[in-house]
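Re: Re: ligand-bound prediction request (bumping)

Still looking for help on this. To restate: I need the protein modeled with NAP bound, output as structure tokens. Inputs repeated here so nobody has to scroll up.
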Amino acid sequence: MAGKVVAILGATGVVGTQMLECLEERDFPVEKLVPLASARSVGKTVRFRGEDVPVQLACADAFEGVDIVLGAAGDETAKELLPEAAKRGAVCVDNSHAFRLDEDVPLVVPEINAADIENHPRNIIANPNCATIIGLVPTFPLHQAAGLKRLIVSTYQAASGAGLPGLTELERESRVLAEGGEVGETNPFAYQLAYNLIPQIGGFKDEAYTSEELKMQNEGRKIMHLPEVRVNCTCVRVPVMRSHSESITAEFERPISPDEAREILASAPGVKVVDDPAKLEYPMPLDTSDQDLVYVGRIRRDLSAPDGVNSLTFWCCGDQIRKGAATNAVQIAEYLV
Ligand SMILES: NC(=O)c1ccc[n+]([C@@H]2O[C@H](COP(=O)([O-])OP(=O)(O)OC[C@H]3O[C@@H](n4cnc5c(N)ncnc54)[C@H](OP(=O)(O)O)[C@@H]3O)[C@@H](O)[C@H]2O)c1
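Reply:
Sorry for the wait, this slipped through. Here it is.
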């Protein structure tokens, strides 16, 4: 397999750093690595395959000769620079929200819609929102079996979902509180996160829903090719370092029992069933961090469903930096080589 020149836009952040690890672990054919970040990082290095590689300033010309760009920066940086990379012939797999809902940009979870990767007329492929990926990996196989009609989701999202600043802020708050101090000014969260929950991720948009909650609805519809599916989501930031968790109630066209669901999920790609209440076995974020599977458990009948047979409730957890971002992007890039 011919080696590729691979740039990471945002190579010094949480997702970019994880991408470096994923490229190594998955033995991606990187002929040359081009780590890019802001002026703040010029002079720093990133570690790749046992070597320190200098970080370069992200600018249009930095993409000359690049085959694949893995985007791990914010929306504005992606909007400004990825079209420049695409113009120079690189195919970009982007983690930001900038292009996800554009009609001519595929939005891909390889376990669900890998076939969409092929048609990328703008040389941009989008990686979905992390909570969307973690929720859909176990939901989609159930949809294939029983026809999804409606989803009600509550998310419990880790501090590192807000990047390196989120991770370091939760560490700081935890340390200060343990030492008996005052948390003081909080950043990037609007409130103290340690010993707390914050029921807001992203800004408030339509009908008092946040941008994160609407991503779950709109991105899910696009990925599953289900434009009519009804989704209601509440996204909550929790004082967990890593791995998002979700409580999901899914209503289907046809009956599906918890046992059938467990059987389907046991052989579904990217999923591990951890579901034995008698042994107190269920997914937890500490167990799902630093690996790529979405764990699913607490699979049960939805007691509130009128017919009692077409609706299931379950709980899932997955590492949002790996499967929710870096691994998913590298998986997409593997289809490009
Ligand atoms: N964290 C997650 O769990 C997660 C999951 C899914 C998707 N995402 C998305 O992935 C992207 C990266 O998130 P993150 O969590 O890794 O954030 P992060 O830790 O804050 O890292 C941001 C990266 O972007 C770079 N950057 C910032 N401004 C730049 C500029 N003007 N030009 C070039 N590079 C710039 C930073 O470089 P410097 O170090 O030089 O500032 C850093 O490498 C975001 O779009 C985010 O929404 C994140």
